[in-house]
Write a structure and sequence with these properties.
single chain, 249 residues, mainly alpha
Length: 249
């Protein structure tokens, strides 16, 4: 029988454990991304991805606001506030949300339709709302650990930029601005988040909880792509979800 650890891992061992979760479970391994980046998606499959991913994008600043509402340490709030600003932008310009809607327009969708949340698949909605509840309700350490999927995001953004530019006519500097910006934003965010988790997960129990939180987040991302594959690649669009031809410019 394998010995069950009784002592916390070293900082280096625990970081390696977290990175191994990403190597095994991050959604860059999902077949939908291979299809998207390889130019095999139909225009409507791309549109379905843009619409459903909007649900996740739109909730990122909401989950960060929920996190900050529970933080008593003003230094932590100051560091975390940047994440909301990155996605919401200023009053009239900038931000990841506006950049995502520029992508929606580029693929032929009405940005107002996408922003309305109409046509989101039920599984997408359930997965994203589960993440929002997790960040709102779980210990702060677990909430930060769940954000560490950003450790693995720059690689998939780089692959996406290259694949979309190679295979799709809509791809240009404007439509791909969201992904280019995240190449510089995400590493800064994750450096702070990783240090926070490695510092505060100072018992084996906390390390196990933080690792479980990261697994949960990879499941949230993976489930969204499972739903897209089932609905739009295999042709099993659920009631209420976007159907080709709806919400177009």
């Amino acid at each position: 029988m394998k010995d069950i650890p009784s002592q916390p891992q070293s900082r280096e061992e625990f970081e390696a454990r977290l990175r191994a979760i990403g190597a095994e479970r991050y959604h860059d391994r999902h077949p939908f991304h291979a299809r998207l980046h390889g130019g095999e998606c139909t225009p409507d499959e791309v549109r379905a991805w843009v619409i459903n991913r909007w649900m996740y994008q739109s909730r990122i600043p909401m989950k960060d606001a929920a996190f900050m509402s529970r933080v008593e340490d003003p230094d932590l709030r100051r560091r975390w506030r940047k994440r909301i600003e990155d996605h919401d932008g200023g009053v009239s310009e900038g931000g990841g949300i506006r950049r995502w809607l520029a992508l929606a327009r580029a693929v032929g969708l009405d940005p107002d339709y996408v922003a309305s949340g109409q046509g989101i698949m039920p599984a997408t909605r359930f997965a994203v709302e589960a993440y929002l509840r997790f960040v709102r309700d779980m210990p702060l350490l677990d909430a930060v650990a769940a954000s560490l999927t950003e450790l693995f995001a720059p690689k998939i953004h780089a692959q996406r930029i290259e694949g979309l530019l190679t295979h799709y006519d809509f791809a240009d500097d404007t439509s791909l601005a969201y992904f280019r910006k995240r190449l510089t934003e995400a590493p800064e965010d994750v450096a702070f988040g990783l240090d926070y988790v490695l510092t505060h997960a100072d018992t084996l129990e906390k390390q196990n909880a933080a690792a479980a939180a990261l697994v949960f987040k990879t499941d949230v991302l993976w489930a969204q792509l499972d739903a897209l594959w089932h609905g739009y690649v295999e042709g099993n669009i659920p009631p209420g979800a976007w159907r080709p031809g709806e919400g177009m410019l």
